[in-house]
Amino acid sequence: MRGRLIFPFVAELHRLDTPAMAPDYDEDFKEPVLVDTDDDGIGEPFRREHPPVRVPCQVEPEAFEALRMATSGNTPRSSFDLVF
Fold first, then answer.
1. Which of 15, 26, 29, 78 gives 50 a disulfide partner, CB atoms 3.0 to 4.6 angstroms apart?
2. pLDDT one-digit tens code per residue, 1-28
3. pLDDT 10s digits, 36-84
4. 62 lies in a domain?
5. Whose CA is closest to 68, among 13, 9, 4, 5?
6. Count of H-run helices and E-run strands, the chain
7. 4 part of a folded domain
8. Which residues pair with 9 in a beta bridge?
9. Which residue segment(s) compose the domain that 53 sits in?
10. Which residues does 80 contact at the CB level (< 8 Å), separation at least 6?
11. Other Cβ atoms closer than 10 A to 82
12. Residue 1 lies in a domain
């Protein structure tokens, strides 16, 4: 049985496109390599994502209160529980 969301939000999820990133993935450090795309001598991060998916969800009350109390919403504890 599925219930209604009490305080509905829309979460936008960006899934990482791992097959597109496979050629430029460093197996030793387990992260994308820096690729110099504009020939300025500085490598830019190489990241490819699937198109964003928007899903309805609800932020758990404790996490919502912590986010609301933060001055700018930019806190070291940036993990929030979402209910789908």
1. 15
2. 567 877 788 888 888 888 887 777 888 8
3. 888 888 888 777 889 999 999 887 767 666 666 665 555 566 666 777 7
4. yes
5. 9
6. 2, 7
7. no
8. 57
9. 9-83
10. 59, 60, 63, 64, 67
11. 13
12. no
